[in-house]
Fold each of these.
Amino acid sequence: MGVSEDLLHLYDRMNARFGDLHWWPADGPFEVMVGAILTQNTAWTNVEKAIAALKQRRLLTPLALSRTDEATLAGIIRPSGYYNVKAKRLNAFVRFFLAEYGGSAEAMSAGEILPLREKLLGVPGVGPETADSILLFACRKPVFVSDAYTRRILLRHRLIPADADYHRIQNLFMANLPPDAALFNQFHALLVQTGKTFCRKTPQCAPCPLGTLPKDEGAVPLAGDGGGRPWS
DNA sequence: TTCCGGCAGC
DNA sequence: GCTGCGGGAA
């Protein structure tokens, strides 16, 4: 069985269990972008509190956020954790978003994927996962988002070697699946849901839709990951 | 007490 | 490579 079939097998098992997850849970693309920064290494339940606090103060627009003092902003997003760092990152992102696209997600989405990705990565506080989350969930670009759950699940099911980095894992999906934003959206959502529910630090394999793990969790090298890059 | 939908600085 | 950032829920 090839890699494409392995991946689609995972997808089908998870999809049968969880169904459509309707990601990203947000009211509009700008809220997706804000959420993508706030959820960095943070439980989503805490991010929801910070988003709600921003909404309540009517600050969930590019202009309103850009006019909010950084220390004040930090206090408002406090429940999301790392609030001083994230206030600075939100500020930097919003300034970028206004300067480059006038605060318009449509304008941002009009550009080509790769140059846009590079520009996002140039914003301090925006790394690969945050950039790709914005590209996929806010701009609807066919970019696969990898994350800690994706890595853990693929490692445990021996679909990647132990030293696989973000780009390698992303490439595994993008080189072996059709470039379909709706597919990448649901696939990532399913991986996160499965990671939260079953593939925790201590795995709960018995009820997991992906079944039990090999006794030896050590990863084996993966053949046929597509070799080259899907883009560039 | 652990863990969370990363990233940057060193 | 290793560390700081951090409140909230399990």
Amino acid sequence: MFLVAINVGGVVASDQPSGAEGKTTRTTIERGLGEDKEEAKLAMAAKKEEMRRGPWMEQEDLQLVRFVRLFGERRWDYLAEVSGLNRSGKSCRLRWVNYLHPGLRHGRMTPEEEHLVLELHAKWGNRWSRIARCLPGRTDNEIKNYWRTRMRKKAQERRMSTSSSPSPSTSSSNISSSANEPPPELAMKKRDGTESVAVGSSLALGFGTNEGVMAYSMDQIWDEIAASDRVSGLSTEEHKDGARSVASPVWEHCSASPWRVDDEEFEMPTPTDGLIVSSNS
DNA sequence: AACGTGAGCAACCGCACTATT
DNA sequence: CAATAGTGCGGTTGCTCACGT
């Protein structure tokens, strides 16, 4: 556990060439550049090469905090450029949102938080940011990591318990035999309402042998766990949008909280004096 | 003490959506 | 209205450290 009080000030922006990260998405690269596409791609790649990556130094954190206070939590590319951090705007934003933002809590989840995550995940699925809004001080990344870790453990336990039986098939038995057509509950809802499928992913856990490997995606495991949770007492109902929900007093509390969910803005409590970043790790 | 392993977590990537020009 | 820039989000990767052997 460490506690860092960041004194904003005294950090001078260097004027080293920075270059905001160009849009790296297909949208821009492929739509906007016409014949110079390849050149632009190369230039962009070169710029990206120059960008600093990897873990942030304390000095960088200080600098970022200072410039965020100056310019606000917007225009990350611009902020990255003028701050002289030689980081991409994206990277700066991520660092701020996941680590430097005042009011963030680090360290172990409390049992209450764990319970809430379980319930909200049952309700919304992998909508981490949405879930995070119900856990003040927790980030989507943190919750996502927590969930992954928990699921990994569960998966292992499950593998142990099923290894004695010849077939990994399960009680819920909703694992499609067709790799191309996952069961509907594995389809992820996109924001536009269309469905996509959480594809394979490196998380897929191999069960059984190579011949006839039972590729077990995390989604499938989650689904099974949800099913077993249902058995163990959580009442789950199917939402019309495909998400599962749990009737929960905790959720009622959550929706009544100032931490708004859905598309509404929410505000983090901001400390009045300086920035306090604490961590248990 | 040295090594291997796995959990935890920070950071990155790529896509999609939204805002701006 | 289309093109572009900016932002948000979910998924993934890889590093670090604690722990067991």
